[in-house]
Amino acid sequence: MSTLKNKVQLIGNVGQDPEIIVLESGKKVVRFSLATNEHYKKAKGDKVQNTHWHNMVAWNKTAEIIEKYAGKGKEIAVEGKLTSRSYETKEGEKRTITEVVINEVLLLGSKNEAETVK
């Protein structure tokens, strides 16, 4: 079990146009949500779809690719690691957020748009 790593792989649709932030150092970071869908049938045969939303973060070259090619509704596959961070709101409330930090993205869809970035 010592070889297990923090690794997440998801295929879904971009929830909104990615938010691009350029830091003072010149590095780019992009944040967006990704929707994944789960389909199953109930005992009576009714089809059910559950949508799960995931917070995504990407840096540098990967951020630039997402900024350029992955707008709202675009289907993508991502690989990364799960992270959590805490912050305090303006009202002084402590919040914790869990995000997937992307290190590889695959653009899916039509018109020969598939591209892998590491």
Q: What's the domain count?
A: 1
- Portion of residues in beta strands equals over 45%
What are the low-pLDDT stretches, counting only 5+ consecutive residues below 50?
112-118
User: In DSSP terms, counting alpha (H) and pi (I) runs of 4 or more, how many helices?
Assistant: 1
The chain-level mean pLDDT equals 90
In percent, how helical is the residue content?
Answer: under 10%
Structural class: mainly beta
Multimerization status: single chain
Shape: globular
Q: Looking at this structure, what is the CATH superfamily?
A: Nucleic acid-binding proteins
Task: Tell me the CATH architecture.
Answer: Beta Barrel
What about the largest sheet?
A: 5 strands, mixed, barrel
Radius of gyration (CA) equals 16 Å
Strand order of the largest sheet: 1-3-4-6-5
N-C termini distance: 26 Å
How many runs of DSSP E, i.e. beta strands?
Answer: 7
Walk me through the structure.
- This protein has 118 residues and is mainly beta.
- The chain has a single domain (8-117), classed as Beta Barrel (OB fold (Dihydrolipoamide Acetyltransferase, E2P)), CATH 2.40.50.140.
- Helices cover 8% and strands 58% of the residues.
- It is built from 1 helix and 7 strands; from the N terminus they run E-E-E-E-H-E-E-E.
- It has one helix at 60-69, and strands spanning 8-14, 19-22, 28-41, 47-59, 75-88, 94-107, 116-117.
- The chain has a 5-stranded mixed β-barrel with strand order 1-3-4-6-5.
- The chain is globular and about 55 Å long.
- The model is unreliable at 112-118 (pLDDT under 50).
